[in-house]
Amino acid sequence: MECNKDVLNVLMLNMSTFPQSKEEHRYKFSEKEYEFECSAESQLVPVTKLLIAKLGKGQKSCLQKIVIMATEETLCVSKPEIWGDDVSPCSFYLSKVGDKAVSASELKQDWIGDKKETEISVNGRKIGVVLVKKQTPVSMAFYQNVIQTMKGNGNEQVNLYMDMQGGDRNAITQANAIVSLL
């Protein structure tokens, strides 16, 4: 089924660094007659999978874009003895959400300034992924990059979904600034 071209569904999230240990947790969501359940080692994965499942359930709607606000730390290999040799928090997340593994070295290639565009496939459906690198201090260019990415072509309605579990202390403030500027 093809996505509705009049609607752009975008998920924005702040990437977290890896926790100290690798533990799988069960997540369950129930709403009226809808139930969703999954296991994951990352708190960001279940929300994304739930959104993909709910938007794609019996309608022409789907998640078309994931905007990841990432730091250098979340793009680099971290704790290889626990998570793997070529695994960063961003590559781990994309590997768990998508149908195939994504390496940290793959994500480090082909950046244009502080932005990288790629895609993942989920059950045969392509989802655009935009990684936007946050610098310290956060610049106006960062906000402009994120906002431009979410605006689409201007002809469609944009539905913005936000998962604010990840990121640093300032992530919520940054997300509020982005929404205010939209």
Tell me about this structure:
The model has no long low-confidence stretch (mean pLDDT 83). The strands form 2 sheets. A 5-stranded mixed sheet has the order 5-6-4-1-7, with helices on both faces. The longest helix is centred in the first third of the chain and has 13 residues. It is α/β, with parallel strands linked by helices and 182 residues long. Strand 5 and strand 6 form a beta hairpin. Helix content is 31%, strand content 29%. It has 7 helices and 7 strands, in the order βββαβααααββαβα.
State the gist of this model.
The protein has 182 residues and is of the alpha/beta class. The chain has helices at residues 44-56, 72-75, 80-83, 89-97, 104-107, 140-150, 171-181, and strands at residues 7-14, 25-31, 34-40, 65-70, 115-122, 125-133, 157-163. Strand 2 (25-31) and strand 3 form a beta hairpin.
* Number of DSSP E strands: 7
Derived from helix and strand composition plus strand pairing, the structural class reads alpha/beta
Oligomer: single chain
The gross shape turns out to be globular
Main β-sheet, in a few words? 5 strands, mixed
How many distinct helices? Answer: 7
Low-pLDDT segments? none
Helix content: 25-40%
Distance between the termini: 30 Å
Q: Which key terms come to mind for this protein?
A:
two-stranded antiparallel sheet, 7 strands, 182 residues, alpha/beta, globular
